[in-house]
Design a protein that fits this description.
Layout (H helix, E strand, L loop, with lengths): L3 E8 L3 H12 L3 E4 L2 E6 L1 H12 L8 E9 H4 L22
Antiparallel strand pairs: 1-3, 1-4, 2-3
Length: about 100
């Protein structure tokens, strides 16, 4: 299954939900900043991530954005421009368990 690279950001209003969303996101990707993650996922993992997040967030208070950046193998770091300290991005070869 082909892996796509996603940029996921969130704004969660309640501290407990915020911690829970962060914990879930750590299992799917790598943090660029506290509430911004880069994730290399296949289609099943993406659905699983969205379901896990849907169980936590409150749709009338919280916000999650998922941006499809294209195939993980060909997008690498080329779709990111950093200023200041540059976080480590996954190589596109990561396997999420």
């Amino acid at each position: 299954m082909a892996r796509q690279r996603y940029l996921v950001g969130y704004d969660i209003c309640e501290p407990k939900r915020l911690r829970n969303v962060h914990k879930v996101m750590c299992s799917y990707g790598d943090p660029l900043q506290y509430s911004v993650f880069v994730c290399d996922l296949d289609s099943v993992e993406r659905v699983d991530m969205q379901q896990d997040l849907a169980e936590i967030i409150h749709n009338n208070e919280d916000s999650v954005v998922i941006v499809d950046l294209g195939p993980a193998r060909t997008r690498g770091e080329e779709c990111f421009t950093f200023m200041g300290v540059q976080p480590m991005l996954p190589s596109g070869e990561a396997v999420i368990v």
